[in-house]
Design a protein that fits this description.
Length: about 170
């Protein structure tokens, strides 16, 4: 990335930063020299443990988009997710069109904040292992640092110890 073409100038990234500031967060979006498209990429770029990366996963339940915020070293338990969100029906992975429509972001840069409308959100309680966690910020080269408490406040998410399982 050249300095003239900073990902921090991207409208999606600016929307995330505005959402953070608007919610009273002091978190600042950080541009990385390497991609954060996957959780492992993000952990390598940030220099943190894989589990400190927050994966923003969009699913479809009852015909609507829902958000699961899961530690990078875990997978979402899609059987439990609807229960945690007090919804019924099967949980299916959202396609790229639903992800974009529900969040305003493309897959690979979905932030937990800055969506057009709030989404039902469940948060993996295993993120409590880390004082600082890192979430995508609207671009594959951008993240923002936060805490589990702040992430819960920013997203109005439901904290659950049941929505994730260790990676196999």
């Amino acid at each position: 990335m050249s300095p003239d073409n900073s990902p921090l100038d991207n409208p999606s990234v600016q929307r995330v930063q505005a959402a953070l500031y608007g919610a009273g967060s002091e978190a600042g979006v950080v541009a990385l020299s390497e991609t954060a498209r996957t959780a492992q990429d993000a952990a390598d770029s940030v220099g943190c443990e894989l589990g400190a990366i927050v994966k923003s996963l969009i699913f479809r339940v009852e015909g609507r988009a829902v958000l699961a915020l899961v530690a990078g070293d875990r997978i979402c338990n899609t059987k439990v997710l609807p229960v945690v969100l007090e919804m019924t029906g099967k949980c299916k992975r959202a396609d790229a069109d639903l992800v974009r429509a529900a969040t305003g972001f493309a897959i690979g840069g979905v932030a937990p904040v800055g969506h057009p409308r709030p989404l039902p959100t469940a948060i993996d309680a295993s993120l409590s292992r880390f004082d600082v966690i890192y979430a995508a910020a609207g671009h594959p080269y951008c993240v923002f640092p936060t805490s589990l408490d702040e992430l819960t406040r920013l997203t109005c998410g439901r904290l659950s110890g049941d929505i994730s399982e260790p990676l196999r």
